Amino acid sequence: MPDHRPGRPTLLYHLYCGIIAVAAPLLWRTVRRKLEAAGVPNKRQQERLGHASLPRPSGRLIWFHAASVGESLSVLSLIRRIGKLLPDAEFLITSGTPTSAALIEKRLPPRTRHQYPPLDTHGPVMRFLSHWKPDAGVFVESEIWPQLIVESARAGVPLALLNARLSQKSVEGWKKRPKTARFILDSFCLFLTQNDRTAANLIEMGAKPEDVKPGTNLKAMADPLDIDEQALSDIRTRIAGRPVWIASSTHEGEEETVFAAHKTLLERWPDLLLLLIPRHPERRDDIAALLKQADLTAAFRAKGEAISDQTQIYVADTLGETGTWYALCPIVFLGGSLKEIGGHNPFEPTQAGAAVLTGPGYFNFAETFAPLVESGGAIEVQTAQDLSDAVATWLSDDGALTTARSAAQTCVSTQKDALNQVAETLCTHLNLTPKAQDPSSSG
Fold first, then answer.
1. Which CATH architecture has domain 11-216+418-434?
2. Does 71 participate in catalysis according to the annotation?
3. Is CATH 3.40.50.2000 correct for 229-416?
4. N or C: which end of the chain has fewer CB within 10 A?
5. pLDDT in tens, 269-318
6. Of 71, 141, 254, 348, which is the active-site residue?
7. DSSP readout, 249-311?
8. Where are the domains of the chain?
């Protein structure tokens, strides 16, 4: 296997290390304040300084680092698959937010543990690597922590960048610093990209073409979201057969369009219920003001308000229940797309059996939405009228809805078929040779 230890550091890299060292005390105070506010105990807070709260398991350890909740959850099914290929392997997931930590720990695959990642300063990084001594590392999506990456490679840890997705702004920034970009990218022995554009960008930034491989959207492989069967039964009882549609992961500036569409739909279906799942539940006061302005009646779940016959919109302003709501209704508008936000993962609703509606601004998931829209599993809308027309079609025509749901399911199944290939590619390029299977265990 080729040596991927980075070469001579650039002046810019030295400058970054110096600045981050000076800023470290302030950075730590900021991070600690957020962890304390989320109720994270002190022992777990210390993980950000590289002090592990768990022992390193014996045997080889494969480390996955993911930035966000979605990225973190998306690797769990991959870990399960690699765990079957490598029955002797142990796994470590690092993610930076308390929300991701809580959700991951509820779903940990066998032989897996979670830690917060070290701050990207010398002391925490070296303590982290000294304790965990990973045999391989996988960075998921676009988070680039220079010291953590470089020091891992210097320690001989083979690294992969999985689900690589970089914004054009980020790419242009790195292209202005080609020597430093190449220095950091040389630490990786594999880049699995979501699309051809990202592959081309990485090569322009300095990645070796032979290390860049086509991948898939890892979120397509994630396990379906959890369902609270009791909560699902309760809300079905409360709505008592009323027609329902969902607007999920909506952002500021999008609810106005959703509410206008719902008012149009109410003219035809007076008992229609909209279940609104805002991306940021803390915006509930702003949403309440918009509802009042639109003259719509609503109940807020976080306040414990029950759905009545007069409730036109149920605001699911809680975390961790989205899977339950998707199981309730097969018509989902996915936000973050009516504005230039980039959209959200359509595989979460489609795995639950839904057909999807989206605005045009889904550029972060362009390669995912393209086959969905082309197959009819998703419909692109731009205005409140477009949205109400599309929802009306699926509410009034069971055949059209069934066809759309089936098309969406086919797209998901096609993507999931790539899981084995990704697992095997990682094992090959990270020098993780599966042990020979016991013939008696086959079948």
1. 3-Layer(aba) Sandwich (3.40)
2. yes
3. yes
4. C
5. 999 999 999 999 999 999 999 999 999 999 999 999 999 999 999 999 99
6. 71
7. EE-TTTHHHHHHHHHHHHHH-TT-EEEEEESSGGGHHHHHHHHHHHT--EEEGGGTPPP-TT-
8. 11-216+418-434, 229-416
